[in-house]
Design a protein that fits this description.
By secondary structure, the protein is an alpha/beta fold. It has helices at 5-43, 45-48, 96-105, 107-129, 151-158, 261-271, 288-292, 295-301, 319-326, 351-358, 379-385, 417-428, 431-441, 449-465, 477-482, and strands at residues 59-61, 64-67, 70-73, 141-146, 171-176, 188-192, 209-214, 237-240, 253-256, 304-309, 332-335, 362-368, 372-373, 390-394, 408-410, 444-447, 486-487. The strands form five sheets. Strands 1-5-4-6-7-8 form a six-stranded parallel β-sheet. Strand 4 (141-146), helix 5 (151-158) and strand 5 form a beta-alpha-beta unit. The longest helix has 39 residues, at 5-43. It is globular and about 105 Å long. The termini are far apart.
Length: 497
């Protein structure tokens, strides 16, 4: 049966329509990618724009574009034009025209980066000649940041000044949007546990370090299944809130006021640990700040009992149930999203302004965590510790590793919420016993979250500069992560025997 001319024409026109539709779809995808990138730049400008020296002195961007068997590597380029958009499967979709355009547009960026690298090398040479640096410090150690999502981790990285490290200042960060099977040209790659990719890159050499970071308890992080075989013998270091991490990454710590913070930083940078302040409690004497403070006046100002700033109303630790039971026996003002009485305690102030204003009038502050996990003590505990108010803590299983004994009240030492509430009422009415806690607290000062972030990354830089002494492989990451670190909350309304 012969095909009629009219049928041929219809087939031809159908083919043309399909071709036009395909072109339109491709253009739409390209536009979507463009606007997605634009949105990302607006949302996270400090990751895409060239930062000032106030943040990171030198940030490298990593672009690794593939086209067939050929590959163009523009890693080490600084600037906002060299951001690669990748599919979720880690493969790059980049046309030859795109590559030519990028090559042309990045020439000026290359020149700027080279000039800065030359300047940095010259600085290192001068320091080496003066005997201030080790001869091996001339190499820049590059740290890749992949999928950093946790807000505290983002803030720490953006406020980092690697030039302020004491021993080595030759480490620099660069940010990568996606990972595939290809190797990453970096001395270290930091993975945020919230966003570990399905396809993992292989180690490029025996000295490359893959780092697992985690700032929340595993109880709340369900996105990453570390039981999979691909994670066995994959990570080299851990950087978490736990003190048994390769590089501890706590939200804060407390040290004696007589201790220089610089001395603590130097110790942490080279050793990766710090001494708990509570070990020196027996040798305490009142410091000058305590002498100047009028603790009787401080106590007389406090005409309210307990305050609790809280935003998460349902937790694994059942803290909301515990506080509800306490409120039957003592007045507790709740500030934030969980304030069912609609109290306007903070008026139109910011949270920090409100905290400073009301802390002098309250006797106790509730610092209950969302889980029962070893070492998990968030920044609110350290922020309120430095104020003239007594902390009531609950959650972490080992507070004495972080806080000196006699400077806080641990809810776990009481058989029930009622017993704790009655004890706080009694303590709050006894000026001598109450102010003794404040006096003891006055012998200490807080090393805050930002400083600890700096300390942790400086320790990482120290390890990278001495990698032969710090090679390590974690055989079973899942076992380390979950191994006897968290406990389920029991029925807190039942009295302990």
């Amino acid at each position: 049966m012969k095909t009629k001319p009219k049928q041929l024409l219809e087939i031809y026109m159908f083919g043309v329509i399909i071709f036009v539709v395909a072109i339109v779809v491709i253009d739409a995808i390209a536009l979507l990618q463009y606007y997605t990138l634009t949105s990302l730049k607006q949302k996270y400008p400090k990751f895409y724009d060239t930062p000032t020296d106030e943040y990171m002195p030198l940030i490298f961007r990593h672009t690794n574009m593939s086209m067939g068997s050929k590959q163009m590597d523009t890693s080490g380029i600084q600037g906002s034009n060299d951001v690669t958009i990748e599919n979720y499967d880690g493969k790059y979709n980049v046309s030859s025209n795109d590559i030519q355009f990028r090559q042309k547009s990045l020439k000026s960026v290359d020149t700027t980066a080279d000039e800065k690298m030359t300047l940095a090398a010259k600085t290192f040479s001068e320091k080496i000649s003066e005997g201030a640096l080790n001869i091996n410090e001339g190499k820049t150690h590059r740290i890749a940041l992949y999928g950093v999502q946790h807000p505290v981790l983002r803030h720490r990285i953006l406020s980092m000044k690697m030039s302020s490290c004491y021993t080595y200042n030759n480490c620099r960060f660069f940010y990568i949007e996606g990972l595939g099977m290809e190797k990453v040209e970096a001395d270290a790659v930091i993975f945020d546990e919230r966003n570990i990719p399905e396809i993992l890159p292989a180690h490029s050499n025996k000295n490359q370090v893959f780092i697992y970071t985690e700032l929340e308890p595993p109880l709340f992080n369900h996105k990453t299944n570390l039981d999979r075989r691909r994670f066995f013998n994959y990570f080299n270091y851990t950087m978490t809130y736990r003190l048994d991490s390769t590089i501890p990454f706590p939200y804060g710590s407390v040290v004696l006021t007589s201790v220089e913070v610089d001395a603590v930083r130097k110790l942490f940078e080279t050793k990766g640990y710090f001494e708990s302040a509570n070990r020196a409690v027996a040798q305490l004497t009142d410091n000058q700040d305590n002498v100047r403070k009028n603790y009787r006046h401080i106590f007389q100002q406090k005409h309210k009992q307990v305050v609790w700033f809280v935003g998460r109303c349902t937790t694994a630790s059942k803290r909301e149930q515990y506080v509800k039971e306490m409120r039957k026996y003592i007045d507790i003002d709740v500030v934030g999203a969980c304030n069912s009485e609609n109290l306007n305690i903070c008026q139109n102030e910011s949270k920090l302004e409100c905290e400073y204003r009301i802390s002098p009038i309250y006797k106790f502050y509730i610092a209950f965590e969302i889980s029962f996990c070893n070492d998990y003590i968030t920044e609110k505990t350290f922020r309120w510790f430095s104020r003239d108010i007594v902390l009531v803590v609950r959650g972490a299983r080992n507070y004495d590793k972080f806080l000196p004994k006699g400077t806080y009240i641990d809810a776990e030492q009481f058989r029930s919420p009622m017993e704790l509430a009655l004890y706080l009422t009694e303590l709050g009415s006894d000026e001598m016993r109450y102010t003794e806690i404040l006096r003891r607290k006055g012998n200490y000062k807080v090393i805050d979250t930002k400083t600890h972030g700096q300390m942790s990354f400086c320790n990482l830089c120290y390890r990278l500069n001495n990698i032969a002494h710090y090679r390590n492989v974690i055989a079973d990451m899942s076992n380390w992560r979950k191994g006897n670190t968290c406990e389920n909350a029991s029925d807190m309304l039942t009295s302990k025997e």
